[in-house]
Design a protein that fits this description.
This protein is an all-alpha fold. It has one domain. 16% of the residues are buried. The protein is 65% helix and 0% strand.
Length: 113
């Protein structure tokens, strides 16, 4: 439950951090001119990026924290359960998507559109 909340918060933060630049671009691609209000989010972009990094940091902490002794088997073997592997993979996927969303406003001037 915690990991899905953290992953959702990270992805939402990345979307909000890039909303000032992606919103108008997507709106213009679909011939929708009314989404220019997304540029009003530009002053809050550093805050959204900071929240995104914070959520991702907490997510990585929970995904890679050491396994407690009570979670280990009776023989002392501490294998990583399948659901924890899935959570780690999803965290990395969301981290890559978030990094791309954060980088888009900086890369837009160099894209041939």
């Amino acid at each position: 439950m915690k990991n899905s909340f953290i992953a959702s918060g990270s992805l939402l933060g990345g979307l909000l951090a890039s909303a000032c630049c992606i919103g108008p671009l997507v709106a213009s691609l679909f011939s929708i001119g009314g989404l220019a209000f997304a540029t009003a989010l530009e002053p809050y972009r550093p805050l959204f990026i900071g929240l995104t990094v914070l959520f991702l940091g907490v997510g990585f902490y929970y995904a890679y924290r050491p396994v407690s002794e009570e979670d280990c088997g009776p023989d002392g073997e501490c294998s990583v359960p399948q659901n924890r592997r899935t959570q780690r993979v999803m965290l990395w996927v969301i981290s890559v998507i978030t990094a791309v969303l954060i980088a888009v406003p900086y890369l837009l001037p160099y894209l041939p559109i």
